[in-house]
Design brief:
The structure is a homodimer of 191-residue chains. Chain A is mainly alpha-helical and 191 residues long. Chain A has nine helices and no strands. The longest helix of chain A is centred in the middle third of the chain and has 26 residues, at 107-132.
């Protein structure tokens, strides 16, 4: 039942936005009684934060598993970067975006969303460093990982307004090539 | 009067979000009568799209003027990239973000916002190419400019959720260094 509520909440955030997502619509969509829903999630904020948190964790695990199966060596950086791009163009990102933007002007929601966002940010960073197999001790490397994640976040935002996957892939192919070159020639060595 | 309405609308989008911005609040904040406001902007959508369009154009011109005064040569790429970062961390970006996200689930608003977004995207791209003084005919160059703009968009989004300017500057310093190296060694030549 919890899973159905989580799925229905994310679906509604994507379809109707934060403002259009009501607890009544979620219980109808999930086929769960209002009483049972309120027992698990007393408020709309409880529900939306739990849903985005839950589904992002699941997608993160999916991503990790998928990338772990990729071969090492040539092409790995691009594969990792493209997968991050797909991850940030998913419905879960769109649902999270609705939450972030609503939280900007809603103090209570902000209190719940900010720790979730920080946790996810750290986890995604850690995962990216691990997947790329890079040494963050080298000057500039940490910033390049952060830039990669802010880039896919920006592409994810563009995607919600009708951008296309072909453009995203082309940009990420070039970024992967650039990132590889930069990681081979750390700060100061490229002059 | 138009200017006061535009300023008040962007202020309210930043403070209260799209949902909390009403035409009544805008006319009060601007000190403009309801009748006069409705004469110029019959609907909320007319008002918010005009305001974000107007203020983005002004900020774009400010940006262009500021960067045109920068010296050529060493440090120019970083100066351009940092200015783009500041531009996308401004209140006008936050107001535009409110519009984009609302437009995602509002068909009428989408019809008005999509052409504005496309126009701004093209203009910002053109400006960036011009400021960096680069040749887009070289393979991979166009994608690196797009990546730069998607990166600052991602950083702008992070900024709305309490990110800090110091992190942004550090990332963009490294990005500028990487971009300079990539532009010196176009696609294929970096192996």
């Amino acid at each position: 039942m919890r899973q159905r509520l989580m799925d229905a909440t994310v679906e509604l955030l994507v379809e109707k936005g934060f403002g259009g997502t009501t607890t009544t619509l979620v219980s109808e969509r999930a086929g769960v009684s209002r009483g049972a829903q309120l027992h698990h999630f007393p408020t709309k904020n409880d529900l939306v934060v739990a849903a985005v948190s839950h589904l992002t964790a699941i997608r993160g695990s999916d991503l990790e598993a998928a990338v772990a199966r990729l071969p090492r060596g040539e092409g790995r950086t691009e594969a990792v970067v493209q997968m991050l791009g797909d991850h940030f163009a998913s419905d879960v990102f769109t649902a999270a975006l609705e939450l972030w933007v609503a939280a900007r002007t809603d103090e209570h929601l902000h209190e719940a969303v900010a720790p979730l966002e920080q946790h996810l940010g750290r986890e995604t960073h850690r995962l990216t460093v691990e997947l790329l197999g890079i040494d963050e001790g080298r000057p500039g490397t940490r910033e390049l990982v952060q830039a990669t994640l802010d880039l896919v976040r920006g592409l994810g935002l563009a995607n919600t307004l009708g951008d296309d996957a072909r453009r995203r892939r082309r940009i990420l192919t070039e970024w992967a090539r650039t990132l590889d070159a930069a990681l081979r020639n750390p700060q100061g060595d490229d002059a």
